[in-house]
Amino acid sequence: QVQLAESGGGLVQVGDSLILSCTASERAFSTYNMGWFRQTPGKAREFVAGITSNGGRTRYADSVNGRFTISRDNAKNTMYLQINPLKPEDTAVYYCAADRQRGGTVLRPGPALYAYWGQGTQVTVSS
């Protein structure tokens, strides 16, 4: 089982840049395709970005493409999400998750396909 912990959220201004981190407890982190999701009250959890286990492929939701950058450092058991520039609609709780299916090149957007989740980090974008 992989334990995940997000960090880096907070109150930020429109137009700012922010980097979220997701740190895993196990070296097995490097074998998992990973994803970032976000959720606002009353709405379903939304896929925003995914990355393959070796970092060779990435995928983004259309709504964030061009502003979000996902990356990972397997030597540090850590994944990142850079958001630049921030918009008010980016306000949400951001979660990282590990896909149930290890490896492979297909990045899957469905939350139900992810086995392990962090506790989330709140990002609030103020105008």
Task: Outline the structure in words.
0% of the residues lie in helices and 51% in strands. Strand 5 and strand 6 form a beta hairpin. The protein has strands spanning 4-7, 10-13, 18-24, 32-39, 46-51, 58-60, 68-73, 78-83, 92-102, 114-117, 121-126. It is mainly beta. Strands 2, 4, 5, 6, 9, 10 and 11 form a 7-stranded mixed sheet that branches. A 4-stranded antiparallel sheet has the order 1-3-8-7, with no helix packed on it. The model has no long low-confidence stretch (mean pLDDT 96).
Quick rundown:
The chain has 127 residues and is mostly beta strands.
Helix content range: under 10%
Low-confidence stretches: none
Indicate the radius of gyration in whole angstroms.
13 Å
The rounded distance between the terminal residues' Cα atoms is 40 Å
- Total beta strands: 11
Q: Encode the helix/strand succession as letters.
A: EEEEEEEEEEE
Mean pLDDT rating: 96
**Envelope shape:** globular
Q: Number of helical segments? A: 0
Largest sheet, if any? Answer: 7 strands, mixed
Q: Which structural class matches the secondary elements?
A: mainly beta
- Beta percentage is over 45%
Topology of helices and strands:
Layout: E1 4-7, E2 10-13, E3 18-24, E4 32-39, E5 46-51, E6 58-60, E7 68-73, E8 78-83, E9 92-102, E10 114-117, E11 121-126
Jot down its keywords.
single chain, four-stranded antiparallel sheet, about 0% helix, seven-stranded mixed sheet, mainly beta, about 130 residues
